[in-house]
Amino acid sequence: MPTNKQRREAAQRRLQRQLERREQLARRRRRNLLVLVSAIAVLVVVGAAVLITGVVGGDDDAGTAAGASPVVDGSDGTCDFTPQPAANPDATDVGIPPAEVPTSGTTQLTMTTNVGDIGLTLDQAAAPCAAASFVYLTQQGFFDGTPCHRLTDSPGLKVLQCGDPSGTGGGGPTYEFPTQVTGDETYPRGTLAMANAGDGFDGSQFFLVHGDSQLRPDFTVVGTIDEAGLATLDTIAANGIADGAADGAPAQPVTIESMAIAR
Hints:
The chain is an alpha+beta fold.
């Protein structure tokens, strides 16, 4: 059994690796931003030249130039799944997913709860790292037998939050990965998104939007919920929140009995 000193040293090494990987991610984002700014500058110069020379294309040439898409982490097929920088007593160790991930297509999941089934579609193109993490945790049985610990039903926030085996709101796996957002995210009814603590990193917690919600675009949109699943969510919402609150544990406990890849 490791000594306290060995555990401290191991935690320090994990933290150092995490800090180094975060710095690498920051450098990559700065590089991508520089490339985008340079591309915009070239487009501006070309546009000015067209106006000055009076060159106007005919109808056959009247296409719209494609703008640069925001960079999405994992779009190159590689994700930065890294150990959490500090020990979390509510974390569940299931290892770390493979870094190489799919970047196209979808994966269908069936989330079986004690209230009813909820079908989920993961978008591997829009959120490759979050989708890959979801699949990995499903294959590990991570979600099976876990509670959905939070339900909200206020005018601007209508979600069911799950994915924490401890049920405390502070649990998850022993790894994390960068939040994947473009700044244009919205959260209408039927959205499946990753929950986070506002630090730019995701884990296993996710929320299911049962009514149009007004949120900052800070949460990875990983997929959608099917109509049968929305009906299940409507039942859960109708059962209310403990103590009649607008935000808290569901009045009728909600348990994920199993999460499985649909065949």
